[in-house]
Amino acid sequence: MRRNDRRDLGLLLLRLGTGGALAAHGAQKLFGWFGGHGIEGTGQFMESVGYVPGKASATAAGLAETGGGTLLALGLATPAAGAAAAGAMAGAAAVHAPNGFFNQGGGYEYAATLGLTAAGLAITGPGRLSLDHLLGHAVNRGWMIPVAFAATAAGTAVVVGSRARRLRKAKEGEQEALFEEEFME
After folding, report:
1. Mean pLDDT, rounded, for 6-20
2. What is the DSSP letter of 98?
3. Is 133 exposed, middle or buried (0-12, 13-18, 19+ CB in 10 A)?
4. 172: pLDDT confidence band, cut at 50, 70 and 90?
5. pLDDT tens for residues 28-57?
6. Whole-angstrom distance, CA of residue 81 vs CA of residue 168
7. Do 8 and 124 touch, CB atoms closer than 8 A?
8. For residues 69 and 83, is the Cβ–Cβ distance under 8 A?
9. Is there a smaller number of Cβ atoms within 10 Å at the N or the C end of the chain?
10. In sequence order, which residues have a C-beta less than 8 Å from that of residue 46 and are 6 or more positions away?
11. What pLDDT sits at residue 178?
12. Contact between 179 and 110 (Cβ < 8 Å)
C-alpha cells in the first residue's frame, strides 16, 4: 500500500469515527435516539447549565453535531463541517471545564478530543476517499477554512460568553452560608 493510499485510508477512518460519534451525539439531542432526551429534555438541560433559551440552544448544538458529523463522515464541505462540529464541542467543553480535564470526573476531555479532531480534519481536508474529492472540491476550497473558522469562532464566542456572563450574574446573587449546618444544631 502506497503512502498516499495509507493517508487517504487514515483520513477516512478519522472522518468516519469522529463524524459518526458527532452525528450520533447530535441525534440524541434532536431526535432522542440512542438514549438521548430529544429537543425538550436537552433544552431543559441546556437551560440548567446556562444556555438560554434552552430549546434553541439544543437545536443549534444538535444541528451542528448531527450536520457537521454527517458531513465530516461523508467528506463533504469539510471546512464548514469541521468548524461547526468544533464550535459545538467548544460549547460542550465550557460546560465541563469546571470539572477538570478527564472525562471520568465529568471533565472536558471527550468534547476537546472530538472538537480538535474535527478542526484538524477541516484543516487537513478529507482525502481522496470523500465526496469533496469526487465533486472536485467545490465546497472544500482553501479560502473556506479561515472563513468557516472565523464565523464559527465569532458565534461560539458570543454564545459561550453570554453563558459565562449569565452564570456570573446568577452567582453574584447567591450568598454563602456564614456557618456550617452542623454547628447550628
Report:
1. 97
2. G
3. middle
4. confident
5. 999 999 999 999 999 999 999 999 999 999
6. 32
7. no
8. no
9. C
10. 52, 54, 55, 57, 58, 61
11. 59
12. no
DSSP string, 100-157: -S-GGGT-SHHHHHHHHHHHHHHHH---SSSHHHHTTTTT--TTHHHHHHHHHHHHHH
E strand or H helix at 176: none
Which triple of cell numbers denotes residue 76?
463533504
For the segment 142-168, what is each residue's pLDDT rounded down to a tens digit?
999 999 999 999 999 999 999 999 999
Whether the pLDDT of residue 181 is over 70: the answer is no
CA distance 139 to 127: 14
Q: Identity (one letter) of the amino acid at 77?
A: A
Angle among Cα 35, 40, 46 to the nearest 5 degrees reads 90
What the block records as the C-alpha cell of 8 is 487517504
Give the torsion through C-alpha atoms of 14, 16, 17, 18, to 10 deg: 80
Coil, helix or strand for 166?
helix
Average pLDDT over residues 61-73: 98
